[in-house]
Every structure is written in C-alpha cells, then in structure tokens.
Amino acid sequence: MKIVTIEEHYADKRIIDQTAKYGCQSCLKELPEKILGAYDSMRYIGGDLTDVDGARFDFMRKQKVDIQVLSYTNPVPDSVPSQEAVRICREANDILSDIVRKNSGRFAAFATLPMGDPAEAAKELERCVKDLHFVGALITGTWRGKFYDDPMFFPIFKKAAELDVPISWHPEFPDAKIQSHYYLSDNYSLSTGMQFATAGLGWHLDVGLHMTRLILSGIFDKLPDLKFISGHWGEGIPSMLDRMDQIMRPETTGLKKKISDYFHENVYFTPSGILSKNQFEYMVKVFGAERIIWALDYPYVPFDSCSTDFLLNSDLTEEEKELIAHVNAEKLLRL
Fold first, then answer.
1. 81 near 21, Cβ under 8 Å?
2. pTM of the model
3. Helix crossing, 82-102 with 118-130: angle to 10°?
4. CA distances to 20, 160, 191, 195 from 12, in Å
5. Model pLDDT, residue 236
6. HSE-up of 215 (CA within 13 Å, CB side)?
7. Cα separation of 36 and 207, whole Å?
8. Residue range 140-164: average pLDDT?
9. pLDDT grade, residue 23 (50/70/90)?
10. 299 near 71, Cβ under 8 Å?
C-alpha cells in the first residue's frame, strides 16, 4: 500500500542561523533564561530536522513511507521582523524546492510564509504553488500574539482558496503570560511545566482554540472553498463539537452553519504521530476515513512509538486504509 505522510518537518542550517537571533517567536523573549533552557531540552525528540537523506530515508523505509510532505516548523522563518521575513521565507522555500526536485517523487512541500506582511505572504504562496509546485502552506501558532482571525491576514487565506491549496496548522509556543498563568507551578518541576504548556497539552489547546476562532470569524462563509489541515486529531476540539453546537448556535454566532459543519466540510485531520487507538476510532466514526490523512510528525515523535503498522493493522476496511494512507492526500494536494 502506498503511504503519504503530510506533517513531516525540516530545517536548513542557513535558515536556522538567520532566524536564531530573533528567537522562535517574540513571546519567548519574555521568558526567563531557565525556561528557554527547558525548551531546548525538549527539541528534536526523534531525530535531526536538518537531515534530508540518511536518517530520514532510513525512517521512511522502516515506516513504509513513499512520500513525505516537508515543512518548516521551529524555528519558523516568519518569526523575524517582516522585512527580513519576506527574504528569509523566500530563501527557505527555494531551498525546500531544491530538495524536492533533487529527490524526485520522494518529497513534496508546504510553503513557509511571512505572515507579518500578508500581501507579500499571498504573493509568496502564489509563487510557491505556481512556480515551485508546492502543495499548500504550513503556518504555526499565532503571529506576534495576533490570532489569524484578525482581518489583516485575510488576503493570505483568500489566496489559498483561489489557488485551491490547503493551509496546514502546526503548534507554536503559547504566549508567555498564558504559560505562566495556566501551566507553570511551584508544585512540580519546570521541565514538567514546559511539557504541560507545549506538547503535553498547552500548544494543542492553543491551536484548537485558534481554529475555532477562525470559524467564528466567518472566514468559511466568506471563503467556502478554503481548506485547513488540523494535526494531533484536531487539537482536542472534536470531542467538544456537540457542546459548541448546543451553546453557540447560528442564530447567536451569525454563521450560516453549525460550528461542527465547518469542521466536517473545511478541515482535514492527521494523527501527527499520536497513535492512540481510541482517538483513531473516534475520529473515523465522527468524520469518516475520507477526512483523515496519515502523518507521523517526523522527527518530533519518539521513533519507538511511531509506526505505519498502526494503520495497516487496524480494523478498518482496505478501502478506508487506502483513503487515509494516500488517496486523501493525493486528492487534496493533487500529488
């Protein structure tokens, strides 16, 4: 069975060096040095982000992966001042394009965009799709504390809808004040607090809330063809959709549909390496196999807990397995 994974990450040393002096996001500059040190200890759990042939190909072979869709995550080039971000994002995308071209058939790519300059971000997305043959874009967290339901970002999403390419969403570090208020405590270690604030729970809730904010802003009523990809099984939101529909009804929100309708019609979901049988079965039951795309979140997940056999040995029908393994990705990304 062909396997396509769409949340697999890469970073180039040249881009890392250019963005390092600015930090991952502006909010990190507010954190004490000891907290930044705790972040450093959590990075690259599985392998080297900058590797593009050795360990990565070994992983792909072991996990039966035919195509990885590559994307930049941390540090993201859009975290630098906007005028620099335009240049650095363009360079980052050109580097990624070369990797895709030199490894014909093994990789595809999501664009990284200078989100702080929406007009330039829209232009860069168009260049990446039309000239570099990228299959969409990946965005992370918020931009300098701004949520993407802010009208300033609308041109980016309008361009994605026009190009008929999806936006994939990846967590980023929550705002420092939120971390301190909700996740850090003197009653447990700093490392535990950092895990709680980020990959343990915090940044998933952050992205899930963000996706819901976009829906409530009416963006999908304005752009009904816009598509998003939500990792980590929807970042905790799917289990609350019935409740949100019950409380936040269209007559209150002013939306044309129920909140759950937008998740069913405009959002695709990936496991992002969270291979939980209960979550997997729940998502298939609620959304159907046609809304789920395989993803292993290379290299952020410990390799000993990450296996394509989880899908291949599941109780799904062969048709459902094919949809999740490659058909949905090929259709959505036009691979």
1. no
2. 0.92
3. 10
4. 12, 25, 27, 25
5. 93
6. 28
7. 21
8. 94
9. low
10. no
